[in-house]
Amino acid sequence: MRKIALITGATAGIGEATARLLAEKGYDLIITGRREERLAKLKEEIENATPARVHTLRFDVRDRRAVEEALDSLPEAWQAIDVLVNNAGLAVGLSRIYEGEIDDWEQMIDTNIKGLLYVSRKVLPGMVERRRGHVINISSTAGKEVYMNGNVYCATKFAVDALNKAMRLELVDHGVKVTSVNPGFVETEFSLVRFKGDTEKAKQVYAGMEPLHAQDIAEVIWFVLSRPEHVNINEIIVTPKAQANAYYIHREGQ
Q1: In which band, very low, low, confident or very high, does the pLDDT at 189 lie, cut at 50, 70 and 90?
Q2: How many helices and strands, by DSSP H and E, does the chain display?
């Protein structure tokens, strides 16, 4: 019997790569995101390429009512979720606190913290009742070290780190695994979103070095899920070879 994995933010980057890989590895998928056309396209491509069944849910994780309505709408055959990948997240802006845009702060807080909580609150009771499941929270090296101008984004990822530890503590008696995956520089839409569509600024983030790719993180997630039942990977920090910590990068020619 194929297990079911729910992946938030599945329309691009790490979420999309994870959906494709888990489908190949034998999972049926619930994929969520804001962009309906991308969800439909991903569903079609996965179902044409693998035996996986794919169920799509379009919602913004910031919208509590939409999250609840979408997850409450799952048909019975899709309700026993085995894996939750809390992937939806973003960074917006790169300003010092005294120059920051409050709308940017709220978007990050609402997505990275509250959105993760809204989804988890709906999925976790079923895992507790069934006494099985695995939650994978996608955090960041920004949740381990603060860097200049990263202030609020870093704060949201520090919150994810704390929530991951709380989940691990509170779910251990119920047979539910919890893991935090903390990537460094990954070349996805991340920087394009941070710089609000400025492609030149986004390209400069990865200049002179080879960043991680979404597939790299998908493979880490698969490694975590493929461990024996008695093994729980509490957290993994993964960076490009050129990245020493949250803020120091070796760039060729610079």
Answers
A1: confident
A2: 9, 7
- 248 in any annotated domain: no
CATH number at residue 75: 3.40.50.720
What is the spatial distance between Cα 210 and Cα 206, in angstroms, rounded to a whole number?
7
Please state, in angstroms and rounded to a whole number, the distance separating the CA atoms of residues 66 and 56.
14
| 254: in domain | no
The closest alpha carbon to 54, from 14, 18, 89, belongs to 18
Does the structure show a pLDDT above 80 at 254? no
Q: Residue 69: what residue type?
A: E
Question: pTM of the prediction?
Answer: 0.96
User: Where in the sequence is the domain holding 181, given as residue range(s)?
Assistant: 4-238
Please report whether residue 246 resides in a domain: no
* Catalytic positions, written as ranges: 153
pLDDT in tens, 68-93: 999 999 999 999 999 999 999 999 99
Domain membership of residue 253 (yes or no) is: no
